Amino acid sequence: MSLHLLKLCVGAESISDLEEWIEEQSLLRRRMGRPNEQTHTTRMVPKRVSEIVDGGSLYWVIKGQISARQRLTEIRPFTDADGIGRCHLVMEPVVVPVEPRPCRPFQGWRYLADKDKPRDIDGRSGDLGVMPEAMRRELAELGLL
Q1: For tag attachment on the chain, is the N or C end more exposed, with fewer CB atoms within 10 Å?
Q2: Over 60: is that where the pLDDT of 86 sits?
């Protein structure tokens, strides 16, 4: 069974904001001649790395709701220029919307068990899959999703 991470997506107003940021970073890396991989730097290194990279995802909390996920492919610990231990969370650049679920703010990241993860919104999600994100968010806030 996979283990996932839950993290606040600070600064993003929507899933499309996150996707635009990923695309901008991808273009910047290409221009600089760097490998085109998406990473997110975090201070704490997860202890359960093998469980996470074995099919786990990073679930993003956007504006108080778990809204999307990206599959994690690698976790790379490193020491920054100030001697502080950090890690890169390496992800696939594909953002998958999930059924919105309220989530209170927290610092850093949290583990998310496979049994507790929200379901993906895809072709099997019926009307939810074609519903605009803003409408899904509003219905979830009202407790109707």
Answers
A1: N
A2: yes
Return phi, psi of residue 53, to 5°: -75, -5
Which residue in 104, 109, 127, 97 sits closest to 16, CA to CA? 97
Confidence class for position 124, pLDDT limits 50, 70, 90: low
Distances (CA, A) of 33 to 41, 50, 64, 109: 20, 30, 36, 30
Residue 64, token pair as written in the block:
């108080």
* CB-count burial class (<10 Å; 0-12, 13-18, 19+) for 51: middle
CA 122/CA 93 separation, integer angstroms: 17
In the three-class reduction of DSSP (H, G, I as helix; E, B as strand; rest coil), residue 4 is classed as: strand
Give the whole-angstrom CA distance, residue 82 versus residue 88: 16
pTM of the entire structure? 0.83
